[in-house]
Amino acid sequence: VQLVESGGGLVQPGGSLRLSCAASGFTFSSYAMSWYRQAPGKERELVAIITSAGGSTNYADSMKGRFAISRDNNKNTVYLQMSSLKPEDTAVYYCHAHSGWRRYWGQGTQVTVSS
Fold first, then answer.
1. How far apart are CA 109 and CA 7, in angstroms?
2. Rounded to an integer, what distance in angstroms lies between the CA atom of residue 23 and that of residue 112?
3. What integer is the mean pLDDT of 99-105?
4. Quick one: pLDDT band at residue 54, thresholds 50, 70, 90?
């Protein structure tokens, strides 16, 4: 099983980034997918989640209206479009797959929002 995140980097406040997570080794379309993030000295927190078929999404309150999660089950990939980024969005962003008791994590990608 692999979850490989990409798309992180340095962006100025107010900017945008699109993260991708390419999945392999499991039946991607059967798993809910989510993005978490962890800032230095803080606990890992849920950013957004999308159901297996992509019909439903949910977001942490601080991300609503700025972030959008989506998935392409033909490409086994989940995305996180981030806009209006703030310095407090700086964190390592992790991809997560969940189906019943099965849970998989990616290695994370760093997002730094700074001028």
1. 7
2. 24
3. 95
4. confident
Q: Region 34-47: what's the mean pLDDT?
A: 97
**Alpha-carbon span 23 to 37, nearest angstrom:** 18
Integer Cα distance of 67 and 18 in angstroms: 9
Q: Are strands 109-113 and 9-11 parallel, antiparallel or unpaired?
A: parallel
Eight-class DSSP state of 89: G
Could you give the CA distance from residue 3 to residue 24 in angstroms, rounded to a whole number?
A: 7
SS3 content of the chain, % helix, strand, coil (to 5): 10, 55, 40
Element (H, E) at 68: strand 67-72
Give the pLDDT of residue 55. Answer: 87
* Tokens, residue 112: 């730094």
Q: Which residues contact 62 (CB under 8 A, 6 or more apart)?
A: none
